[in-house]
Amino acid sequence: MSRNIRVAEPSPELQRKIIRARQAIAEQEPRVIKCPYCRHNSIVVFGDTKGHVQAKCKICGRETVFNVLEMRRMRRLQTYYSVFTEIE
Ligand SMILES: [Zn+2]
Asked: Would 13 be classed as within a structural domain?
């Protein structure tokens, strides 16, 4: 797809930022949001991810905007319902 793209090492300042970001998420639980079209894992978000993110699915190529907080609420609701049906 991207045959003509030249890959270069990021600047030292950018590399420091990348390392810092990696350290910041080390203690956080990653959460996978699935592509709504093909159900494959689309993006990984972390505990401090808030608001909207746009991701392009690696499998089907569709771009989707996710509201991360809304996805989290849906997940909780599903967990709640599965617990509820187990009791019944
Ligand atoms: Zn997809």
From this structure: no
Q: Which residue in 28, 29, 31, 58 sits closest to 42, CA to CA?
A: 58
Mean pLDDT over residues 51-57, rounded?
Answer: 91
With a threshold of 0.85, does the pTM exceed it?
Answer: no
What is the distance in A from the centroid of ligand 1 to the CA of 65? Answer: 12
**Is residue 70 included in any domain, yes or no?**
yes
Question: Measured in angstroms, how far is the CA atom of residue 75 from the centroid of ligand 1?
Answer: 19
Q: Is residue 1 part of a domain?
A: no
Distance in Å, CA 18 to ligand 1 centroid: 27
3-state secondary structure of 70: helix
